[in-house]
Each structure stands twice: as C-alpha cells, then as structure tokens.
UniProtKB/TrEMBL annotation:
A Pfam family per the record: Oxidored_molyb
Bilayer-spanning residue ranges: none
The protein's name: Molybdopterin-binding protein
Organism, scientific name: Paractinoplanes tereljensis
Entries under SUPFAM superfamilies matching the protein: Oxidoreductase molybdopterin-binding domain (SSF56524)
Domain Oxidoreductase molybdopterin-binding: start-end pairs: 35-179
Length: 199
C-alpha cells in the first residue's frame, strides 16, 4: 500500500467561480514535498544570484531581511488542483534583488537547499510578479512551507514557488528543473492548465 501525502485526497472539494480551470478551493494549507524538509539555521542561510557571465551577488540573512520588503496578498494554485485565496506574505521583490544585476538573460533556474530546482522565465520574476517570501500570515515562514524563505510566483502553479530557496542562476537558454525534467510543464500557467508536457 502506498503512502499518500496530506493534500492529495480525502478532502471535501469546494468549487468556486473564478478559480483556474480544474481547481478546487481549500481553506487549509496542504504540505506537499518531494523529500524531507530541510531545516536551515539562519546563520547558514544565504541567497546568491549568478549571472550568465559568472558574476555573483550574495546576501546573508541579515543583509537579505534588511532589504526593502513588501506585504502582498495573492491567490495560490497547486498543480495537485487545490487553490488557496487571499494568502498574505511578506518578502523581498525580485525587482529589488535584480535591480543592480547586469544581465541579458531571458531565463532563470531557481535553486533550493536540498537540491531542488525549477526554471522560470526572467520576465515572470520582474515588474511586481515575484518575491522571496519569509513571512506568511504575519508569522515567520515555517520549514514545512519553505521557511526560512521561499520563492513566491503566484501567477504560476505553486511548484514554481520553490521552497527553501537559496539562489538564482540567470541563463540565456531555458532548461528543465526537477519537476520539469520529470514531465511537468516547462511554464505552468494555471489558467491554461499547463500541468504536464503537452498541456
């Protein structure tokens, strides 16, 4: 008998007008992970942006949390078909992190503690579309939800909002990340139901 993670089944599914197609509303926050939950001490946390030319910019936790942060309220949509509406986060916009980075890259690879990766086009990180979030609902982000910090890209399926984030590599060409190499869609627009390759 297989193990079924919380969030994959057994829930009353509430359909709400205005959700992306195929999604149902949840009021809790399902925890879905491909492996064990990393627990990263703040004195070991860092975030690094590496450009396509090899230039690097790095922040430790104190430097990162000293950057201008934003409070945002967004809807989130998981590829396993749950949606959670009106979630509140605090984080640093990717616009802020990339403001002084010289690049002509069109694509990025997001990296996480534990080795997880996911690819995201550069244009989907800028213009107020994405954040590195470190608070959820007014509290420090719990490890099971990606704390101390996770990517937040609410207009894409939530696997693109990588948990336990620690870096971003800027790339000239698109490459698949962890789930994309396993058959998930390279982009992941919930409104187009881009769950898997070929969708």
């Amino acid at each position: 008998m297989g193990i079924i993670s919380r969030g994959f089944g057994g829930r009353r599914r509430e359909s709400v007008p205005g959700l992306p197609p195929g999604q149902y509303l949840t009021h809790d926050f399902p925890v879905l992970s491909a492996g064990p939950t990393p627990r990263i001490p703040l004195d070991r946390w860092s975030f690094t942006v590496a450009t396509e030319t090899g230039e690097k910019k790095k922040w430790n936790w104190q430097e990162f949390t000293a950057l201008e942060s934003e409070d945002v309220t967004v809807d989130i949509h998981c590829v396993t078909k749950w949606s959670k509406l009106g979630t509140t986060w605090r984080g640093v916009a990717l616009d802020t992190l990339l403001a002084d980075v010289e690049t002509a890259a069109d694509y990025t690879m997001v990296h996480s503690f534990g080795g997880y990766t996911t690819n995201v086009p550069m244009e989907d990180l800028l213009d107020g579309k994405a954040w590195i979030a470190y608070k959820f609902d007014g509290e420090d982000l719990e490890p099971e939800h990606g704390g101390p910090a996770r990517m937040l890209i609410p207009h894409l399926y939530f696997w693109k909002s990588a948990k336990w984030v620690n870096g971003l590599t800027l790339m000239n060409d698109d490459e698949p990340g962890f789930w994309e190499a396993a058959g998930y869609h390279m982009y992941g627009d919930p409104w187009l139901e881009q769950r898997y390759q070929g969708d």
